[in-house]
Specification:
Blueprint lengths: L6 E10 L2 E11 L4 E6 L5 H8 L7 E6 L2 E2 L5 H6 L2 E4 L11 H5 L6 E2 L2 E2 L1 H14 L15 H14 L4 E5 L7 H16 L4 E4 L3 H7 L2 E6 L2 E7 L5 H9 L17 E10 L3 E9 L3 E5 L6 H9 L6 E6 L2 E2 L5 H6 L2 E4 L3 H5 L6 H5 L8 E2 L2 E2 L1 H14 L16 H15 L3 E5 L7 H16 L3 E5 L3 H7 L2 E6 L2 E7 L5 H8 L3
Parallel strand pairs: 3-10, 3-11, 6-9, 9-10, 15-22, 15-23, 18-21, 21-22
Antiparallel strand pairs: 1-2, 1-4, 4-5, 7-8, 11-12, 13-14, 13-16, 16-17, 19-20, 23-24
Helix pairs in contact: 4-5, 13-14
Length: 495
């Protein structure tokens, strides 16, 4: 079907302490194709790409790029070879501006002075290509996760790439941004630049991919032409079992309100907002990028200060701007940015899981280590967290398993109310089904759930009601019987 491969990886092996991340992995990519790399979290996809792009050194194997064998020893060396990667986890410097991040390490100079105007003009053009409307002089720390992702893509486009790797590039993007990104990808492919595209979203695979290679447990299990396969076959290759596409909604009798929010407001980002969630209820929160969904969750949890309003859990009125008090009252918050806000990456899996519930394992000021380990081990098994042991550092887990560790922490804390902000972001099909099951178990036990999601099937499949945000304002709350994709989008765009 295609020309001689531009990239060939054969017999690639990589081992970390206690974990065989790659075992005899293979991959072939031809010029001008969009090659999807698919697999469950921990399957080895990101590790294989990090070997390709010089972040990790392979223990064994061979990489051929063009007409020569390569073994990049650093990302800088890989970029010089024409290999550019956009990582799943953002790698921007918050204190620098957008333009400074885009040009980091490649600043244009004249007579020893950095040409700031050139950087700004070029950055503005790159941002327009990915339909990102931020000012190049804006500090990255002020951007949302979705905007930071777009800046990462713009930075990659600046390089003269001969092969581009995108690791979950649409995880925090709205439909319009995804469509714009697909146009960029297709343009690169038409110019002969292949793209390796890592994604768990099946609709994206069939919308943009030419071929798909599936990995499982560090092995390559097969390559298929996208137009000659289907969702069922790909899922079977990924997980070794068949998973239904439908989200099973558990019918739970909703109890008295457990979470009550009255007139919560913050500056220009959150207009006065009131809502309530009953025991056993799932309140979905929908909205486009910048709609204020995350800001609402952070304000409820006390992570950000507010100008007005109150939050109550049961009969307890929270003091505001005090996450510790929120946790003590039984309120948990699974953030959208697990790496920066959810985990202590240098701590072990077990320590991360029990971090917010240490009182449960303490007697007379001393930790009962055996009880703590038993609880953490039970949750590792329940959530199918792939770790070599409870002592493995969280930083060495795959992105999806890091997300599961954060979820395990809140399960260990026994919260009465759970705020989920994009809980399946970057999660594969099999893990999504497991998280849906866990959310179902939570509401059956009487936990009130607030589910923020960009995935319309999640909201329509799981939520009892859907609250829709637009520009920091709550536009309406739709009961399950009235919630549809069309009605939600009408409210989300403020019509």
């Amino acid at each position: 079907m295609r020309d001689t491969p531009l990239l060939t990886m054969t017999g690639v092996c990589k081992r970390f302490p206690g974990v065989q991340a790659l075992q005899d992995a293979t991959l072939e990519v031809s010029p001008g194709e969009v090659h999807v790399l698919l697999g469950e979290n921990g399957a080895g996809k990101s590790t294989l790409m990090k070997v390709l792009c010089g972040q990790y050194a392979a223990d064994d194997g061979k990489i051929t790029f063009g007409d020569r064998r390569i073994a990049p020893e650093s990302p800088i060396e890989a970029e010089r070879l024409g290999l550019v990667i956009i990582h799943q986890e953002l790698n921007l410097i918050p204190g620098l501006t957008v333009a400074e991040n885009i040009f980091l390490g490649h600043e244009p100079t004249k007579s020893g002075f950095i040409l700031g105007e050139v950087m700004r003009e070029t950055s503005a053009e790159l941002l327009r290509r990915v339909r990102c409307g931020v000012d190049p002089d804006t500090p990255v720390a002020q951007l949302s996760v979705a905007e930071q992702q777009l800046v990462e893509i713009a930075r990659a486009l600046k390089e003269d790439a001969q092969l581009l790797v995108m690791d979950e590039p649409t995880a925090a993007l709205a439909d319009a941004e995804i469509e714009a990104l697909f146009e960029v990808i297709q343009g690169l492919a038409n110019e002969g630049v292949p793209v390796i595209y890592i994604s768990h979203k099946m609709r994206e695979i069939f919308a943009i991919g030419d071929r798909v290679t599936v990995m499982r447990d560090g092995h390559t299990v097969g390559t298929r032409e996208v137009q000659k396969t289907d969702v069922s076959e790909l899922i079977r290759l990924m997980v070794g079992r068949t998973i239904g596409e439908q989200i099973a909604k558990r019918e739970v009798e909703i109890g008295e309100p457990v979470l009550q929010v009255e007139g919560l407001a913050r500056g220009n980002v959150l207009s006065p907002t009131s809502l309530s969630v009953g025991a056993g209820e799932i309140l979905g929160v929908a909205g486009l990028m910048g709609s204020g969904r995350t800001e609402l969750a952070r304000a409820i949890f006390g992570a950000d200060p507010v100008d007005a309003g109150t939050v109550s859990v049961g009969a307890t009125i929270l003091p505001g701007n005090d996450p510790a008090a929120s946790i003590a009252a039984g309120l948990g918050f699974l953030t959208e940015d697990r790496k920066q806000q959810g985990l202590v990456l240098q701590m072990s899996v077990g320590e991360n899981i029990t971090l917010t519930s240490l009182d449960e394992f303490s007697r007379h000021g001393l930790l009962d280590l055996a009880k703590e380990c038993e609880r953490a081990r039970d949750l590792v098994q329940k959530l199918r967290i792939r770790a070599s042991s409870l002592n493995q550092e969280a930083i060495n887990l795959s992105g999806g398993n890091q997300q599961k560790v954060v979820l395990a922490r809140w399960l260990a804390a026994g919260c009465r109310v759970m705020l989920f902000d994009e809980p399946t972001r970057g999660i594969d099909v099999g893990a999504k089904a497991e998280i849906y099951e866990l959310i179902g178990e939570l509401v059956e036990s009487g936990v009130a759930v607030v589910l923020i999601s960009s995935e319309m099937p999640e909201l329509l499949g799981l939520a009892d009601r859907v609250a829709v945000m637009h520009e920091g304002s709550l536009q309406g709350v739709l009961p399950r019987t009235e919630a549809s994709q069309e009605r939600i989008m009408e409210l989300a765009i403020g019509s």
